[in-house]
Amino acid sequence: MSDGIKQDHEKVMEALYWWGVPTLFRCPHIPDPEGCEIALIGVPHSSGNGTTEKDQHLGPRSVRDVSPIGRRVHAKYNLDPWAESKIFDLGDVPLPEANDNEASIQRITDYYARLARQGVSTVSVGGDHSVTGGILQGLACEGSKLTEGRKVALLHFDAHTDAFHNLDHWLGAKKSAAHWASYLVQQGQVDADLSSQIGIRGNLRTLEWTETSDELGYQLITKDEFDDIGVVETIRRFRERIGDDPVYITFDLDCLDPSIAPAVSNVEAGSTGFTMNEANKLLQGIRGLNVIGGDVVCLMPTKDNPNKITSMVAMSIMFELISLVSDRQRTDRHKMRGGSSNSQGDNLVF
Hints:
With 350 residues, this protein is an alpha/beta fold. The chain contains ten helices and eight strands.
C-alpha cells in the first residue's frame, strides 16, 4: 500500500466518531501545555446550578465522543486551524471536590491561571455556566500573558443574564451559574463597559430581571431586539464596545432554539432562540479582534436525542471558537513578518 493511500485510509478512520480513543477533534491528548498555542479543555462541573439535573458534567465526554465527525477546515476563513496552530486536548480540569462548588471554582481558576501565565489561549467545554467564572478568574490573573494586565471584554451569548447579584447565593452555591457575570465585573476581571450580553430571553419571573446587568454596565441585546435590528447591527454594536481589548466568548447553548439544542439545562421553550446560521454569523462577526479564548456550556447529554444532536451543535460552536483564535494567531504572525494589518482578520464575514 502506498503512503498516499494509507494516509487517505487514516483520514477516513479518523472521521468515524465510534472508532479509536476519543479526544476533542482528534487532537493529541497532551496534558503538558508546553508548546501549545490553543488548549482544548473539558470542565466537567455541575454543582453551580442547583435548579436542574446535574448531568452537565457529562458534557465534555459527550463532545469528545462526537467531535471526530465535525468540520476540520473553515471555508469562510480559508483556514485549517490544526495546521495553523498547535492545538492540544489537555484533558479535563481535575475536580476532586466536585460537589463543593466553591472549591471547584477555585480549582478551575488555578488551572487556567497556569495556562494564562504561559500565554496559552483556551477553548473549553463545560459543565454548567459557573465554570466561566473560574476560567476568567484564571485567564485574567496577575501575570497573564493573554490579558497583559487589562480587563477582559466579555461577549456573552445566553438566554439568561447570569448576573443575579441581588441574591447572596443560588441554592447554596455562591460563585454559581447565576452569579458569575456579576462577580467578575465586581472583582475587576471583566469590564462591563466593553461587554455585551446577547440573545437574552426567557420565562420572566419579574419585570426587573435585567436591571442587575444594567447596573453593572453591560450592553444588553435581547433576542427580541436582535430580531428587530438584525445580525449586522448587532455585530456593529458589540465590536464598537470591544475595540482592541482582549475578548472572551462564552456561549450558553440555551440561547439557541430548543428545536436545535434540546439537551440544555434550562430550556426556554416559550420564545424562539437563535438558529445555527444566526449564531455562526454572530460569532464570525468577532473575527479579527483580540480573541483570547471561549467556552461552550450547559450541555446535558442525558437529555439529548438519540442522534446526539445537541452534542454535535456544541462541537460546531466549539469549532467556530477554535477558528477565531487560530485565525487571530495567523494574523498576528503575519504582522510580525511585516505583512499588512488587514491580512485575514479585518475582512469581516457575516
